[in-house]
Every structure is written in C-alpha cells, then in structure tokens.
Specification:
Layout (H helix, E strand, L loop, with lengths): L19 E6 L6 H14 L4 E5 L6 H7 L3 E2 L3 E5 L2 E5 L2 H7 L3 E4 L15 H10 L3 E7 L7 H8 L9 H5 L3 E5 L3 H9 L6 H9 L4 H29 L11 E6 L5 H13 L5 E8 L9 H13 L3 E6 L3 H11 L4 E5 L5 H7 L3 H8 L4 E5 L19 H24 L6 H19 L1 H19 L11 H50 L3 H13 L3 E7 L14 E8 L11 E4 L4 E6 L5 H66 L7 H33 L7 E3 L1 H11 L8 E3 L7 E3 L1 H18 L7 E7 L2 E8 L31 H11 L3 E6 L5 E8 L42
Parallel strand pairs: 1-7, 1-8, 2-3, 2-6, 6-7, 9-10, 9-12, 10-11, 12-13, 19-21
Antiparallel strand pairs: 4-5, 14-15, 14-17, 16-17, 18-20, 21-22, 22-24, 23-24
C-alpha cells in the first residue's frame, strides 16, 4: 500500500465541516464498498489526499485488491472480555487530517469501551474536523425500515442508524442491482463462503426478498431526492409544477360524494410508483352551510387507510385557496367532484368551484369525477353572510332598474291609486334591493324613491314641493322605514358572517385537536396545522433561554427554537412576519405573510394550545424519567414484603441445627450429627442462592450487572446446567443436533438460566411426561427450547410471570420469592438474547431462549474460485449473516 503523505500548505489550518457521501444498497453484495473504493481511487488520481480509515474486506480478494494503492490508517485493537477486536482508530485519522476518509459499514456498532457507541458517531467527529467522508450502508440498517425488513426477510437487524443521519448526508447515491444479478454474484462465491451460499440463496437472498429490499431502497432515496427538490424550489421561489413524481390532490366538501372522490384519486395515484395522495378540505369563513364534522372524520380515516394524508385550510375563495395549496405541494393532478347544485342554483350563482379551478389550474391536470349526488344536493342558493361583491353589484343594478320601472308602473295607474299605495310599492322596492344588495344600495333606492314620489305623485305634481303635511309625513316614514329595513338586512348579513367565521374556526380547532389526540407528537401536530391553515412557510415555537428574562426583546437576545414546522426555522421573534406572545418565556413566530386581526384571534388559541402541548411533552418526559425511581421503590417494597419469610426460614433451620450440635445436654449419635449438619448446609445453600438472586436482580435493575459474552458451545453449557440439578436431571430428555454453531454468551450466566428454567419445567411436569430440551439454528440466532407438559400459563398472565416477586397466586414461600423467571429473562437480555413463553402443542409451556450465534469464519479463497461476468464487486457483508434454520423443522422465513 502507498505510504507517501501528500504535502499541502497548512495541515493544521481550521476547516469548515466536511462533506458526507453515502452509498446506499439494498443488500450485501451489490457493490457499495467497491464503489466507495473506486471513488477513492478517482479522487486520489486527481490529487486529493485520500486515506482508508476503515474497510472490512471479509476475506474477499476483489475488495482487498482495490485497497492497494491507497494509504490505509492502521486499525486500533480494543480488548474486551479477554478478546481482541479491531476498530477504526479515530484519533489516528484526526491526527493524519486527510482531505477524504473512506469509512466502511456506516451502521456498525463499536466494541464496548470505544469512544463512541456507533461508527456513524465516529464519522460525525471526522466531519466536524473538516474531513470529507465516503461511507456506505444497507437499507435494512435504517431505523425506520427495520421492522419492515424483518417482516420481509424474517431476520431482525440489531445494527441500525437513524434515518435523519443518512438524510443529512450531502450526497446519497444508490448502488443498484437486479435480484437475478445479485443471486448470480452470490452463486459465484463473491459474497459469502461456499458453505453458506445454498442457505443464503434459499432464504434471505430469495428473489422476492431482494426485489422488495430493492424497492424499499429506491423509494427511500426518492423521498430524500424529493426533499432536496422542495428546498430548491423554495429557495428559488419556483411556483410552477414540476412533474417529478405524481401528487394527486382531492378536494373534499364534507358531502356524501367524498368517498367516491377519495377512491378515484387513490387509483390515480396508484398508477405511478411512489405517487402521493393528499386530501384537502377548504373551510370557508362566509358560508353557514359548513361540512358535517362526522362525515369529514370518516373521510379522513379513509384517506389515511389508503396511505394518503389529510389537510384542512381556511380560505374564502375556494378555487384560489385550493390551487394555492396544490401548487405549494407540487401537485400534478387535482380531483374534483361534479357540483351538487341543481340547474337553478347554478344559474343564479354563476360558475362553480370546478369551472373556476379549471380556468386557473395552469399546468395541473384537473379531473372532474361524476357521482350519485350531482345536481341534487343543495337546492336553492343559501344565504351568504357579508354580502360579497357579486350580491352588492346585483343590488345596485336592481336599484337602478326598479326605481324607473316602479315609477312608470304607478304613472300608468295614477287615476286608480292614491299616495299611500304609491309609497307602499316604493317601500317594497327598497326592501327587495336591501335583501339583494344590502344597506348602501337600499339607501340609494330609498332616496331615489322619495324624490320620485315627491316629483311625480305628491301634489303639486312635477314640483319638489309638498302641499299637505300628511304627504310629507308619509314620505318621511317611507325614508325611515327603508333605512331601518336596509340596516336590519345588512346587520343580519354581518352577524351571519361572524357566525360562519366562528364555526369555521371551531371546525379548524376541532380538526387540530383530533390530530393531537390521534398521535403522540402533539406539539408537532399543532404547528403543522397552524402552518397549513394559514398558508405559512414556517411556524416556530420560540422559548426565552434561562437567565435572559430581564433582557428586552432585542435582536438575537436569549431565544431558542423549541419546535418548528416547515423551513426555514426562526431563531428570534424579530424575524417573524407574525409574532404571537404566549407566555413571558414563549412566543409563536410565523413566516410567510402578515395576517389580519381576525386571524390573529384564532392564532392566539393555537399558540396557547402549542404551549399546553409543550408542557404536556415535558411533563411526560419527567414522568418517564421518574418511572425508574418509582419502579425501584415498588421493587424495594415488594422485596421487603416477600423475603421476610424466605430469609428467616433457612436462617432458623441453620441456627437450630448448629445450636443443637453445640448443646452439651444431648449426646448425638453420629448419624444424627450428619443429619443436623446436612440440614444446616442445605439451609445455608438456600440462603446463599436467595442472596445471589437478590443481588443479581438489584444489579439488573441498576444496569450494573457484569456480563462477559464470548463464543461457547451450547451443548456443554446444557450438560453443566443439568449437572447442577442433581439426580432430578436424569428425568430430562435432551435432543440437541450436533451441527449447532457456537453462541456468543456468558457461559456461567447462561448455565444458571438454563438450570432455573429446567428446574421450573421439572416442577410442573406431570409424572410420565418429562421435560424436553431441544435446539435449532434460525438465521443468525440459536433457539433453545425447554418444553414441559404441565398446566401451562394463560396468555393473559404470560407477562406477569416475568415480574419479580410474582408466582400467580402461589403463597408457598418455601419455593422462593418469585425471582426465577424475572431473573432468567433479565440475564438473557443482558447477553443479547430473548426469553419468550409459548404454548406446547398438546398442552404445556415452552420457554424459548433465542441466543446470538457466532458467524462461521470465511472459507479460504483460492485461485480456483469461480467468478462470472457479474462478479465484479466484493461488497461488505452485513454484520449478522442471515441463515435459515437447520434443525427442528423451523418454518421458512421465520
């Protein structure tokens, strides 16, 4: 390997944070390490200072050959429990200060005693030192997909890395390979040793498994790419739709047609892989005919069951608000239902939401979906509060038309009508104008009507004078009544608008409350709802830092973000477009646009809700922190209540035996002395066993139990465990296959656990049905089963048997204080294993011990190894090689 250190001007000069590049793969063998080393060679050829900080070859010649020519930092040896392990020497890398470091297996767990628990934490130190890092990770190691991968492959992954760490990488590049090519590479011996190839191809590396893992990797990377695209569009203020992936928005009115629209939109989204479904309900502030909350709740559940998300936005102009939301979400398609208005309503109110949305949709495709409710759902137009401009213009037009028409009509009937009838007809015209156009058009109509009545119908005619007092009174009453009626109509419109606004605000608060109650992230849900409802770029809850309460709200003084929704996050209230103080130490900041006073009122309610959610979150954290203390107190109380008899009984027996032996009043025969000594010895053994159990349980509770796992033979441990049981062990049937791999356990602790479980099985096994011990290999685990034919344990009580001092109603303290199973599970989990009870087919209980197996060493690779056209890269294998069960008929894929 090369050992020439490139020279550059100042190796100690401070650098900014380094860049992180990650190669993502769907499974072992796709070529991540090979690609990483290839990139290292390319950069070295361009003059970049590149070192191999840590690369695991797993004995693969292709990988080892590619390391040649790159400087490798010597590894650090870590001693742990009488064994030596190799880890990355982070101090040596930092002292070397290369420009680029190649670090294999990003999700690797370091040996206990290392500086950091995980390798990605080591990488963080390198990045903070200004060193660029190139690493790799498999999709099964991402924390969010851990359970999904286990369902697909049947193999749990214990080494994980938080998704946020990988998402924060500057570059993530997928190394893709078809399942068929990867299986050929496996068959050629370029991934696993020859003896493991058949098992791997039959189980973990089945074509279906690999196809599912490949899809997970591609979809995860697509989501990360989409996040970067959204940031780019926001930074460059790009409002147009980029059809990088299908996003289907379905508009819901809360009507019965909603289910049809949702399912239709879901089918449209499903036509393209990775398509998103978003449902949105626009809450209007000028409409008393609000949606049914129960119907919306049902439709929301339907959307979420189909994999979509539900949103609610307030806006008076429904088409504009809907299109603004769709463009903000980079939607490619919009699904609307045919209007439920009948022909008369459509004629009187003009174009509906669908038509106006189509005209303003631009590059968003609009789907108009027919349904059973179209044309028969709403009848005549509903009264609208606030009298929008359309109504006001209609009122002015009606006032202009009615005044001359009524005048002409009354003039033609001058001989048959008197002034009273004329006034009443003009008053009817004023009321009609008030109902249509509100106060101002009605006032104009009343003024015009009074002038026309005075000029054309009040003696003397064709003059603006009034000869009789009663006529003047009639005209005065006419004007007053017209003004009063107009005022009443206009006031009713304002009250209806206020009522509708209050209803819309209440509906939005109820929706937000439902979001909080359905999830555990209450604070995040509140901030998300605020951002969506008011159309903001970001919403941040800021808290004044302790010690800065006396400082004025000066720029940059004493504020820190507690939680945020959207980007960019605020760091001080002065940067917000809207600033809502919550308490002396909390304020809610919104960025995006200014809000009117009417919106600030409900925003204050949201701010108080956010403060309450923050308090609840902190109280929950404090309660969680106090839980171990409460548990310790409970344990202490239970211990004092349970061990009193168990401590006294062996002490009393030993004391009585020793006192009898020391007595000079009785001459004991030799056989009597032996019996007394045996009684004392047995009592002291019981007391010592009880004390050992209590000490171990206390160490487990405190997390201070020392466990030293190392490779051990399970058959030998089982044999020693049965020897500890004495003559009773002769009744136990042992059926252990001879091909079991070694297990990584603390042999002394496991021996004690097996002895305890076997003794428990002997105690409850009926005569003629002895317990059975059997074992099998399952993936990277070895399962030991202790089977009995006793009464078993009801499923509802299986968790209780592992609680200390529980014997399910057994009050016989001579059998112990109930620590056996609790201690056995605690000791097993401390070694990285699990202990679970299961029903024995035919009756009884089976205790299953699952223990980590020791991977077999890689087979030597000679020059005659077969290689095919696909065997190019030699990527790293996962830390745990998933293998199938080899005994006990374990089901495939478990």
């Amino acid at each position: 390997m090369g050992d020439i250190i490139p020279s550059y001007e100042d190796r100690s000069a401070p650098r900014g944070r380094g860049q992180l590049r990650i190669y993502l793969g769907s499974a072992a063998g796709v070529g991540k390490t090979f690609a990483m080393l290839g990139e290292g060679h390319r950069r070295a050829e361009r003059g970049t200072d590149v070192v191999v900080a840590f690369v695991e070859t797993h004995g693969r010649p292709h990988t080892a050959a590619l390391i040649e020519g790159l400087e490798a930092i010597p590894r650090k040896r870590v001693e742990y429990r009488n064994s030596s392990f190799e880890e990355m020497d982070i101090d040596a890398v930092l002292a070397r200060r290369p420009e680029v470091a190649l670090v294999d297996e990003f999700a690797h767990t370091n040996v206990p005693g290392s500086r950091n628990e995980k390798r990605w934490q080591d990488v963080e130190e390198l990045l903070e030192a200004g060193i660029d890092v190139i690493s790799n990770v498999n999709i099964q190691h991402l924390a969010s997909l851990n359970d999904v991968v286990e369902k697909i492959t049947g193999v749990p992954q214990r080494e994980t890395v938080p998704d946020a760490i990988v998402r924060a990488a500057d570059q993530v590049e997928i190394i893709d390979m078809t399942p068929e090519a990867l299986r050929r590479r496996m068959a050629h011996g370029n991934i696993y040793p020859a003896e493991k190839i058949d098992a791997a191809l039959t189980h973990y590396f089945r074509a279906g498994n690999l196809a599912a893992l490949r899809e997970l990797a591609l979809l995860w990377l697509a989501d990360k790419v989409d996040e970067g695209l959204q940031r780019y569009r926001a930074a460059h203020d790009i409002q147009g739709t980029w059809e990088a992936r299908e996003r289907v928005v379905v508009a819901l009115t809360g009507g019965p047609e909603g289910d049809t629209l949702i399912r239709r939109a879901a089918r449209i989204a499903a036509r393209s892989t990775g398509g998103d479904l978003l449902a949105v309900h626009i809450t209007k502030s000028d409409d008393l005919t609000g949606a049914n909350p129960a119907t919306l709740a049902e439709q929301r559940r339907l959307v979420e069951s189909l994999g979509g998300t539900y949103h609610q936005v307030v806006g008076d102009n429904v088409p504009e608000t809907l299109l603004t939301f769709a463009r903000a979400e980079n939607a490619t398609q919009l699904v609307l239902g045919v209007s439920r208005r009948n022909w008369l309503s459509a004629l009187l109110t003009g174009p509906g939401v669908s038509n106006r949305a189509i005209r303003g949709s631009g590059d968003i495709d609009v789907h108009i979906v027919t349904h059973a409710q179209m044309g028969r759902g709403r009848g005549l137009p509903q009264a609208r509060g606030g009298l929008p401009l359309r109504r006001k213009l209609a009122g002015y037009a009606l006032a202009i038309l009615l005044a001359p028409l009524v005048t002409l009509f009354l003039a033609s009937l001058r001989d048959g009508l008197n002034l009273t009838s004329d006034v009443l007809l003009f008053l009817a015209a004023v009321i009609a104008v008030a109902l249509v156009g509100g106060f101002v058009p009605a006032v104009l109509e009343a003024i015009a009507g009074s002038l026309l009545l005075n000029y054309y119908f009040t003696p003397p005619v064709h003059q603006f004078t009034i000869a009789e007092a009663n006529n003047a009174l009639a005209l005065g009453v006419f004007v007053v009544v017209g003004l009063v009626v107009s005022s009443v109509v206009d006031g009713a419109a304002r009250r209806s608008k206020q009522a509708a606004r209050a209803g819309a605000e209440s509906e939005m608060l109820v929706t937000a409350a439902g979001s909080v109650l359905r999830g555990q992230q209450a604070l995040a849900a509140v901030l998300d709802r605020v951002r969506e409802a008011f159309g903001m770029e970001s919403v941040t809850l800021l808290e004044r830092e302790p010690g800065s309460a006396g400082a004025a709200r000066r720029p940059g003084t004493g504020w820190s973000p507690v939680a945020t929704s959207g980007e960019p996050a605020l760091t001080r209230p002065e940067d917000a477009d809207v600033d809502v103080p919550v308490t002396d130490s909390l304020t809610l900041g919104l960025r995006g646009r200014t809000l009117p006073a009417s919106d600030r009122r409900i925003l204050g309610a949201f701010a108080a809700y956010a403060a309450a959610a923050l308090e609840q979150q902190r109280l929950s954290a404090e309660a969680e922190a106090a839980r171990p203390i409460a548990e310790a107190d409970r344990m202490r109380t239970a211990l004092l209540a349970a061990v009193s008899h168990d401590l006294r009984t062996p002490l009393a027996s030993a004391k009585a035996a020793v006192t009898s032996l020391r007595s000079h009043d009785v001459q004991w025969a030799p056989e009597d002395k032996d019996e007394l000594l045996a009684t004392a010895d047995e009592s002291l053994d019981r007391l010592a066993h009880l004390v050992d159990n209590l000490l171990d349980m206390s160490r487990l509770q405190a997390g201070a139990l020392s466990v030293f796992p190392r490779p051990a033979d399970l058959e030998e441990i089982v044999s020693r465990s049965l020897d500890d049981l004495g003559p009773a062990a002769a009744q136990v049937i042992v059926d252990m296959p001879g091909t079991l791999p070694e297990v990584r356990v603390d042999a002394a602790i496991l021996e004690r656990v097996i002895a305890n479980l076997t003794a428990n099985a002997l105690r409850y096994s009926p005569a003629g049905s002895p317990p059975l011990l059997t074992a099998s290999t399952l993936g990277d685990r070895v399962e030991l089963r202790i089977v009995d034919r006793g009464p078993g344990i009801p499923e509802s009580d299986r968790d209780r048997v592992f609680v200390p001092f529980q014997r399910l109603g057994d009050t016989d303290n001579t059998t112990g204080v109930g620590l056996g199973l609790a201690l056995s599970r605690g000791l097993t989990e401390a070694m990285g294993g699990t202990l679970e009870p299961e029903d024995t087919p035919g009756g009884g209980l089976t205790m299953t011990l699952s223990l980590p197996a020791v991977p077999a060493p890689p087979a030597p690779t000679g020059p005659d190894a077969v290689a095919g056209p696909d065997a190019v890269a030699g990527p790293d294998a996962p830390a745990e090689i998933p293998l199938p069960a080899t005994a006990a008929g374990a089901p495939d894929g478990r």
